[in-house]
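lol forgot to send this yesterday, sorry. struct tokens for the thing we talked abt
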């Protein structure tokens, strides 16, 4: 049998083609996936829907993010390729209440509302739905074989949950040795982190520190020219960067470049489910945390961004041990009552939050950053200090896990959601707006 390339369809994206041999794949949590196929002309397509419908005029910019505008867009692409709606068959998947589930998840029901809109649109166009598996409590994958039209829906952990092998956890000495062998975040970047967290910097200070590390300077300029931060003008020097994208974006570029290099020391068989998965997840959490900080006024935006980027630094160390234990971790996470941290503790004897807290101390992070890294995953309401920032990063991490699955292994507990929303003076009605504000270009791993 000949090899078939698999193309990942990220949240808020769609893809359609004719007579292709690719397999389209979407990881679906709370998001909804719709696959369409015309067996006569061999036209196929998949849309990965983020939200039921646009908020205000937002749909004009990214219509593929929403069920109400994205599905008609996909249907029109089929018609443009020569298909007729009566020849198109549809499969719907996703819209899960990714567990553990709180009453806030049920009240919000974003996936359920997306599914209802999808069915109404398909019915209106006389497109038959031949398979529909929506709701539930776990992440699934929707795959469309463009060569045959075969569509499959599987639990995301099905293939890797079969191993019954038991492995001895690494010792604390093993983990300490790994910390010494992993290339750390550069000293220049660590100093800039501290400057930002302590509000004692000017752009001259930042560029002076950055100029001392030529590698980090080059990585920063490369990122400045990426779609994430600019992409419209050519930036060749740090002075250009200050003038063309401004102080805030330059600082974010420095921090993001440093973290990217650090996270790149992970593979795709551990925590990451795709190339660069940990980095993409962390950038998403950073942007979402920044959005929440701006919306609520509960934290300084650049501090929230930095905390979001760094919250999972402990995973880089433990990733060195996860690759041969991933089937066991997947298996444990498929048990509804098993928490992510307890699964890590069982397999490794330590959690990524604990390792991250050790790194935060070693690298002299601020108390606020250290608290976020230690407490972002489990009952943030119990944090004694820096509670606002911890709550912001917890909420950002939870939203990324539910709406941008497929980047890394994650299973957030959501019982704290009600307390966190109340503490940040947010309601469930604010959640779609926060989700909608995450730029999709940093989430698309195919670029």
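and heres what i got for the seq, position by position
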């Amino acid at each position: 049998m000949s090899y078939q390339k698999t193309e990942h369809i990220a949240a808020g994206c769609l893809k359609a083609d004719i007579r292709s041999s690719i397999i389209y794949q979407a990881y679906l949590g709370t998001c909804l996936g719709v696959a369409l196929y015309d067996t006569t002309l061999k036209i196929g397509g998949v849309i990965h829907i983020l939200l039921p419908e646009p908020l205000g005029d937002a749909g004009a910019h990214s219509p593929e993010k929403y069920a109400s505008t994205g599905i008609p867009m996909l249907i029109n692409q089929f018609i443009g390729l020569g298909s007729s709606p009566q020849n198109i068959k549809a499969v719907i998947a996703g819209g899960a209440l990714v567990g553990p589930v709180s009453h806030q998840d049920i009240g919000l029901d974003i996936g359920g509302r997306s599914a209802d809109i999808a069915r109404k649109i398909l019915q209106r166009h006389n497109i038959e739905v031949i398979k529909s598996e929506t709701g539930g409590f776990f992440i699934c994958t929707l795959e469309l074989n463009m060569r045959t039209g075969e569509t499959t829906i599987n639990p995301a952990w099905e293939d890797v949950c079969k191993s019954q092998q038991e492995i001895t956890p690494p010792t604390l000495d093993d983990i300490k040795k790994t910390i010494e062998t992993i290339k750390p975040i550069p000293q220049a970047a660590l100093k800039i982190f501290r400057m930002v967290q302590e509000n004692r910097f000017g752009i001259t200070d930042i560029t002076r520190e950055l100029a001392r590390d030529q590698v980090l300077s080059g990585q920063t300029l490369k990122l400045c020219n990426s779609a994430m931060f600019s992409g419209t003008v050519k930036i060749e020097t740090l002075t250009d960067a200050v003038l063309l994208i401004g102080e805030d974006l330059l600082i974010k570029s420095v921090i993001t470049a440093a973290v990217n290099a650090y996270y790149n020391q992970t593979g795709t068989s551990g925590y990451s489910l795709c190339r660069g998965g940990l980095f993409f997840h962390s950038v998403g959490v950073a942007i979402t945390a920044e959005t929440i900080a701006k919306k609520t006024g509960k934290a300084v935006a650049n501090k929230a961004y930095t905390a979001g980027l760094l919250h999972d630094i402990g995973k880089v160390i433990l990733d060195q041990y996860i690759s041969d234990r991933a089937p066991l971790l997947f298996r444990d996470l498929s048990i509804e009552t098993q928490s992510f941290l307890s699964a890590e503790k069982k397999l490794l004897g330590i959690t990524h939050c604990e390792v991250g807290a050790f790194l935060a101390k070693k690298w002299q992070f601020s108390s606020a950053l250290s608290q976020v890294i230690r407490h972002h995953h489990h009952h943030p309401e119990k944090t004694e200090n820096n509670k606002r920032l911890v709550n912001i990063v917890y909420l950002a991490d939870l939203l990324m896990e539910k709406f941008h699955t497929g980047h890394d292994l994650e299973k957030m507990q959501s019982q704290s959601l009600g307390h966190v929303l109340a503490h940040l003076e947010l309601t469930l009605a604010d959640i779609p707006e926060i989700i909608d504000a995450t730029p999709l270009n940093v989430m698309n791993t195919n670029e």
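The chain has a mean pLDDT of 83. anyway ping me if u want another try
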